[in-house]
Specification:
The chain is an alpha+beta fold. It is built from six helices and six strands. Helix 1 runs parallel beside helix 3 and helix 4 packs antiparallel against helix 5. The chain starts with 5 loop residues before the first strand and ends with a helix.
């Protein structure tokens, strides 16, 4: 079982560059991945990171933040063709208007289309390595928190099972005494069947997505309890059904944070 809320933070360093990758996971019905502060020239790497996350996580809102610390070198390009045209025109004007030719090459660097530069791509292997390590730690966090949720679910499930057992014994006695009036045996039996499935799902070792299936089973059990509640008027059974629904609500609420 894995929680949908988790957090991890990774630092990687190479020469003058330090990469910080932070991953944060929150509750969401589907899988939604967002990568922030990522340079546009690394768009392909961004997609690779998203694909890596999709392999490991089935649902939740995943946010990835990439921070670069340190100096990023730039590639400088001087367009000699445009520079030569500027110099030629300057010489023509100097000759035409009898101006001195005290010109320096630096005088042309601020002119349009002479000098351009672009930042070099960040170290992609470094970023991807940090993202993968961050994802691994995020999954470890999710499993750890998932175990906490599982234990809380089992506590509520224990109370629910104890109540259902008492209700089942009480409803059988009522049915035999009242010739089937207020008979809720069918509802209780179905609730017990779903509870057994719910316990198996909660305790399953596989860390596959199980939040939706747990939520579905709680809805089925709740439906049977509501049906039983509407049929029985016995004072010794009705309060147990209400308490059972409270236990079920706790499990259902916890299931909202299960992947």
């Amino acid at each position: 079982m894995r929680s949908m809320t988790a957090y991890s933070n990774i630092y990687k360093r190479k020469k003058a560059q330090t990469i910080q990758v932070t991953l944060r996971s929150a509750n969401f019905k589907y899988l939604d991945i967002s990568i922030h502060d990522f340079p546009s020239q690394n768009i392909l790497l961004e997609e690779q990171i998203k694909e890596e996350i999709k392999k490991k996580i089935t649902r939740g809102k995943i946010e990835v933040y990439v921070y670069l610390k340190g100096h990023i070198e730039s590639d400088v390009f001087i367009d000699e063709f445009n520079l030569a045209k500027y110099i030629l025109e300057a010489k023509k004007l100097s000759k035409k208007y009898k101006l001195s030719e005290q010109l320096n090459i630096s005088d042309f660097f601020s002119l349009p289309q002479v000098v351009s530069w672009s930042e070099k791509k960040m170290e992609e292997n470094l970023i991807f390595s940090a993202a993968k390590e961050g994802l691994k730690k995020l999954l470890e966090f999710k499993v750890k928190q998932g175990e906490v949720i599982r234990q809380d679910m089992l506590k509520s499930l224990k109370g629910l099972k104890e109540n259902i057992k008492i209700i089942k014994e009480g409803s059988s006695a009522v049915s035999s005494q009242d010739n089937g009036k207020d008979d809720i045996n069918e509802e209780v039996s179905l609730a017990s069947f779903y509870i057994n499935d719910l316990e198996k799902k909660i305790n399953a070792k596989a860390v596959v997505s199980k939040g939706r299936s747990i939520d579905f089973l709680t809805q089925e059990i709740l439906r049977e309890l509501n049906s039983a509640s509407s049929k029985t008027k016995k004072k010794n059974i009705a309060p147990l059904i209400v308490e059972s629904k409270n236990y079920l609500d706790r499990i259902r609420e916890q299931a909202q944070n299960v992947e």
